[in-house]
Design brief:
By secondary structure, the chain is an alpha+beta fold. The protein contains 4 helices and 4 strands; from the N terminus they run H-H-E-E-E-H-H-E. It has helices at about 25-50, 55-65, 110-130, 135-155, and strands at about 75-80, 85, 95-105, 160-170. Strands 1, 2, 3 and 4 form a 4-stranded antiparallel sheet that branches. A hairpin with a 7-residue loop joins strand 2 and strand 3. It is elongated, with a radius of gyration of 37 Å. The relative contact order is 0.12.
């Protein structure tokens, strides 16, 4: 009987595996990418540098010649408000402590202390109706200041121009 013919295994082939790129090729790719990145960064720097506007000398002299605007007139008085501590509407366990002052126009009224206490009471009531989300961030603080100034102006029948917030702490 004859020996069965030997067969090659199905998985092997006579082709060799592709060789890995050499170290020289990798270094060449690295150099090219570095040059591209450097060129892009330099181009961006030049573009951004040319965008910067330089004020002409006449503009600088004009700005220096202007006197700073005065925010308050000499007839106004600043009165410190009593510290206000209030619960916020939401979250219920959050407290707010506000320290501030009011700017009173004209001659100081003899009942300035009474007016400051009434305004503090209004502030307490208003803060109790707010949520923490309403006073977060710079825009929330600005809205709070504007609302408090409007309420103080109404309470004083136009005598108070502004409420200044010295500190606002939420716990």
């Amino acid at each position: 009987m004859a020996d069965p013919p030997e067969t090659e295994e199905q998985g092997t082939s006579s082709q060799a595996a592709p060789s890995q790129p050499s170290l020289v090729v990798w270094l060449a790719i690295l150099v090219v990418l570095t040059l591209v990145a450097g060129g892009a960064g330099g181009g961006l720097g030049v573009t951004m540098g040319s965008m910067a506007s330089v004020e002409p000398e006449s503009k600088k002299v004009e700005l220096e010649a202007k006197e700073p605007a005065v925010a308050y007139s000499s007839g106004e008085m600043i009165k410190t408000l009593p510290t206000v501590v209030a619960n916020l509407a939401a979250p219920a366990d959050t407290f707010v402590r506000l320290e501030g002052a009011i700017v009173i126009a004209g001659e100081p009224a003899p009942d300035g202390e009474l007016l400051a206490n009434k305004i503090s009471g209004d502030i307490l009531g208003y803060l109790s109706s707010l949520t923490l989300a309403q006073i977060e961030g710079p825009s929330g603080l600005q809205h709070l200041r504007e609302d408090l100034s409007e309420r103080a102006s109404m309470r004083s029948e136009g005598q108070v121009n502004e409420v200044i917030i010295h500190s606002l702490v939420a716990e």
